[in-house]
Amino acid sequence: MRISIIGPNTPIPPRGWGAVESLIWDYKLSLEKLGHTVQIINIGEPMKILNMIEEFKPDFVHINYDDWVPLYPYIRYPCAITTHFAYIERPELMGPYKERVFDVFTQVKPTVFGLSDGINKVYENDCKIPSDKLYLNPNGVMSENFRVTNTPKFSDRSIFLAKVDYRKRQCFFQSIDSLWYAGNIVDHRFDQSKNYLGEWEKEYLYDNLTDYGNLVLLSDGEAHSLVIMEAFAAGLGVVVSEWATANLDISKEFITVIPEDKVNDLEYIEKAIIENREYSVKNRNEILEYSKQFDWTNVIQNYYMPNIEKVIKNKKTKVAVCFIGTGKYLNFLPKYYENIEKYFLPNATKTFMAFTDGELDGLPDNIIPYYQEHLSWPFITLKRFEIIDKAREEILKNDWFVFIDADGLVVDEISEEEFFDDDKSFFGVHHPCHYLKMPGHQSFPGSFETNSKSRSSVSDEDDTSTYWQGCLWGGKVPDVFKLIDEMKTRIDDDLKDDIIAVWHDESHLNKFFIENKSNVNTLPSSYAYPEDFSSQCNFNPKIVHLSKDNSKYQV
Asked: Do 491 and 505 form a contact (C-beta atoms < 8 A)?
C-alpha cells in the first residue's frame, strides 16, 4: 500500500526533541518494514502539499499535523487526520488553538484517527463528527531500539523525561530528592542545579532509560504520550497525572495515577513514586510483556492497517454537479436537483454549484449558490467555462466534476460504475444527431468548426468519428481544470479576434476532445436523449434533453 503522511514543517526525523516528528518517522520505518511504501510531506506550502500527494498517488493519506485540517476537503484520496494536541480533552485550556484548529474540525468533519477513546468522544460530542468517522488509533513505540537490563543502575532514582515546560510542571516537584530530570528547558522557573541531566539525544535515551527505576509524567494535559510507551519498552513502570492515562490499564501495579486534586501534595506524590518504583524494579518482565501491545508492529497490524482498510472501503466518491440557469432557466432547478439526487450516482456524495441571477431560498445543504448575471446569447453558453471557474475552490474538494445543462433531466438510474472510467480524465456524450447520422451530420464537416482562424477549428485530417454534445461533460478533479482553463484561453483569444465558433463552447469542446481522444470516456447518446425527436431514437433515455415546449416531463 502507498501511504502519504503529512507532518509539520520541521525536520523528520527530528534533530532534537520532537515527539510528533519521531512518531511520523517511526510510522515510516515500521510500515516499510511490513512492505508498504511511505511518503513523508513536511513542508509549509499547502498547494505544494496537495501537488506532492497527487504526484505520489497514494492509497491513503494520514494528516499528522492538525493545523492542516483545512486541506482535508481538497485531498481526493482516502484520508484521516490525527491530533497530537495535549489539551484536546481540556477545552478550557485550548486557548487560540480552539478557533484556529478545533473549530475547523466542526466545519470540515474529517475522518479522525483518534489517539484515544477520550479524544474521539470530544470530536463526537463537541464537533458533531459521526461515530463511524472516528477510529481508535494509538501511538506506538520502536521497542527494538531500547536496551533493557533486569537490574537498573539507578534503582533508587525516578526520571521525569520530557521537555521542561509549563505543561509538564517539573518545577513543582523538584523538592523530591529521588526524582531526576532530562529534557530541553523552556520553563525559566526550573532550577537546573537540582537533579538535572541535560537534554538527551534519542540514541542516548534508547541506551540509558532502562537504568532508572520508573518514569514520572505529571503534566496537565496529554494526548497519547510517547514517553510512557518508551518507559514500558525500557522496563520502567510509570507514575502519571490523570491527564496522561490514555490507553493505559490503570489496574496494573506498575501504573500509578496521581489525581489532579493531589498534584500539589508533594508528600503524597513522593510516596506514590517510591512505591511504584520499588514494585517496578522487581517486576520488569511483567512490564516488558505489557509493553508488547504498544510495539509499532502490533499497533500497525491491530489498529492502523485495519482502520485504513475500513476508510478505503467506506470512502464515497465526491462529485461536483454544475447547474447554470439564468432567467427562466432557473425554473428547471427543482426537478433537476430532485432527479439527480434520486437516480444519478446513488453511492456518491454530490455537491451542486448553482449559477443564477434569480432568488434561491430554502436550499438543501448540498446546493451552493453563485450569482451569475444573465449574458446575452451566445455569451451565456460561450462563457460557461469562465462562469464555472468561479467555483474552482469548491470543485477542487471533489473527485469528479459533472456539467449537465439546466434542461437536462436524469430519468433512469445511473451508477458510478457505468458513468465514470477511472482510466480516463474526461468524459463527454456522443451527440445523438451525429450518432443517428441525421441530415447535416452524415459527412464532414457536419457541425464541426472549420474556420481556420478559430482555435476550435478541425480539418478532415482529424478524427471526426465522434461529435460530442456540450450538454454533458466533465472529468476527474483536478484534471478537468486542464480542460476548463484551455477552453477559457481559446475562447478569449477567439473573441479578441472577433471570432465566435459556429457552435460556441461546444465547438471548442469538440476540438479539445479530438486532441485528447484517448483520454476521453465517450458516453452513449442515451445520456443526451432528445425529447424533441424521440421518435427517431433507437435507444432508451438515461438523461433527457427536454423539449422547450410541452415537455412530457413537465418541469
From this structure: yes
Who contacts 219 (Cβ-Cβ below 8 Å, separation ≥6)?
Answer: 86, 162, 167, 168, 169, 225, 241, 243, 244
Residues 281 and 352 in one domain: no
As beta bridge partners, residue 160 has 181
- 43/158 same-domain check: no
245: confidence class by pLDDT, cuts 50, 70, 90: very high
395, 531 in Cβ contact below 8 A?
Answer: no
- The Cα–Cα gap between 159 and 413 comes to 66
Phi and psi at 59, nearest 5°, equal -80, -25
Which of 292, 307, 337 lies at the terminal end of a domain, its last residue? 292
Number of residues assigned to the chain: 555
- The domain of 380 spans 316-545
CA 200, CA 204: separation in Å to the nearest integer? 6
Both 129 and 151 in a single domain? no
Domain count, the chain: 3
Q: Which residues pair with 355 in a beta bridge?
A: 324, 370
**Does residue 157 share a domain with residue 82?**
no
Residues 263 and 361 in one domain: no
Q: Residue 345: which CATH number?
A: 3.90.550.10
Rounded Cα–Cα distance for residues 278 and 271 (Å): 11
Instruction: Say whether both 22 and 166 belong to one domain.
Output: no
* pLDDT value at 554 more than 70: no
Nearest C-alpha neighbor of 405 from the set 494, 337, 470: 470
Q: What is the 3-state secondary structure (H, E, C) of 428-467?
A: EEECHHHHCCCCCCCCCCCCCCCCCCCCCCCCCCCCCCCC
Q: How many CA atoms lie within 13 A of 530 on its CB side?
A: 17
Please give the Cα distance from 72 to 62 (Å, whole number): 10
Q: Round to whole Å and give the CA distance between 339 and 309.
A: 33
DSSP letter string, 259-277:
-GGGTT-HHHHHHHHHHHH
In a domain, 358, yes or no: yes
pLDDT at position 228 over 80: yes
| Average pLDDT for 482-502 | 97
Same domain, 116 and 132: yes
Contact 302, 241 (CB under 8 A): no
Sorting pLDDT into bands at 50, 70 and 90, what band is 390? very high
